[in-house]
Structures are given as structure tokens and as C-alpha cells.
Amino acid sequence: MITNLDILYRVSLLEGQAMAMLASTTQMCEKARKTHDLSKTATAALGRLLTLSGMTASRMKEGSMTVTVQGDGPIGRMIAVAKPDGTVKGCVDDPQVELPRKNGKLDVGGAVGHEGRLTVVRDMGLKEPYVGQVKLQSGEIGEDMAYYYTVSEQTPSLVSVGVLVKDTVLSAGGLVIQPLPGCSEAALQSLEMTAPLCTNLSDTLLRLGAEETLYDLMGHLQPVILETGKLTYQCDCSRERMERALISLGEKELTSMIGEQDGIEMGCQFCGEKRHFSTADLRALLEAARSRGQQDDGSGE
Ligand SMILES: [Zn+2]
After folding, report:
1. C-alpha 269 – ligand 1 centre gap (Å)
2. Which residue of 55, 107, 156, 174 has the fewest CB atoms within a 10 Å radius of its CB?
């Protein structure tokens, strides 16, 4: 068996008329599965979202990207946060959701729901983040992200994403192909003809490994590897971040927490790490919230 190590390729196609990203994300999806004790269906759903979010964010220069999928299915809300350095984290409301297989495949669309919205927030450190939102197409994530690229970013894209999971994640990955400005009609046709080859991406990755998959699927498109990287499941939470979140709750909320015995315990929704804040800690945060409140009053905004 081929050892399928995580890797992300950025590839130029057809002498610069198009670009592709191919990611193998088996280890990343397995880390997400273990972190949240995800069911098979939830592993596939979140794994797909993390893979495509990480790939998309890898093209940003700085900041972070948050993709939220809110459908009407039993998994509830799904969130993925990705940064240009390849780190991703995410969570779902119901990590245990499991549905009967549909046509032999995990029913991701059924878990996510067919009605709802996919929202992308790109925070690039500017005053206002960029926000794009589209209706869910199928809840299968791949189609929904393709629709987002086409409608919200005006970049029609071929998107394939898959997570093969038995007891653990056996294989996972994503492929995004996008025409670039000035792409000829003939080049567009070549790209379109590639689409049927790209189904069952996780199977192909498992069988061939990432590099062979690249040439197998895109060999006819004169691929040139421009860059390689990697997507990793990693949380960037800290005690300081939680403190800031607590302060932002405000005086009233903090005062009521101080009433509770032994302080409070806060868990991170992305990695599960728990941090304890004693009554004394909370009092200090209340002081911080008070002085911040006064500053806000005085700023005249
Ligand atoms: Zn965390």
C-alpha cells in the first residue's frame, strides 16, 4: 500500500491558462475525527469542509477565512477556520450524527441538509471583512463550494472532494481547478472534459498517492507544479483569547458567573481543551471589563 502523506500542490495548467490545487488531507481529517470523536458521516462532512476551506485559504496572503455551513440537517451548524499557513480547525453541532448510506455512500447531504446557507468570511486585517454567502446546492459541500466560487467569487470552478472513512480515515483530499483570465475556449473545453475523471478522488488518492493522482487526472493539461505545502489540523486557542472572550461578555454576564461556586470551566469548541477560571480570575476580568466600558464611554464613538 502507498503511504499517503498529506500534501498540497499548486499547479499551473495549459501554459498558465488555468490553475489547480490538489490536496491530500488524510492525516488532517483523521485528526479532526479524533479531536471531536466524529461519526463516519460527520467525519466526511467536516473533512470535506476543512479540506476545501484550507485549500482556499492557502491562496490568501494573510488573515483567516471562516466558512460556516448552516443547513437544515441533523448535523446542525458546521464551521471551518483556515489560515494561509495551512492550519485549519473546525467543529460541528452534532459530531455523532449517523445516517443510513445512500447509494453506497455516506449521506453527507442528508446530514447537512439541502436547504440552508454557506457563508465565507475572509478577514484580511482590514476594517471590514469580506463576506460572501450562497444558498446550499446539495449539502454535499463540494457542489456548495463550487457554487460559492462561481457566484460569489465569479470564478467557475471544478471541485472534487472526498473522505473515505472506515473506522479511521483511510484517504481524503480535494481538487479545485479554475480557469484564469484570458483562458481560451479550447482550454475551457479541456478543463470541462476533465470533470468526469475527478469523481471518487479519495479512492484515486488511496490507490495512487497524491503525486501520481495529479498526473493521472491532469496529465493531459500540461501540469507544472508551482508550489507544495500542507494542510494541518491545529487549534490556536489560548488562555488569553478566552480571557478576551469573557471580557467581551460584559459586566452583567461576568457578575453572574462570579456568583457560581469555584469559578467556571471553559472548553474550546475546536480542540476540546478545557481551561478553568477561578472566582478570583473572574473578578480580575470583571475589573478589566469595567475599565474597558469606561474607555468605550469616553471615546465618543
Ligand atoms: Zn482550541
Report:
1. 7
2. 156
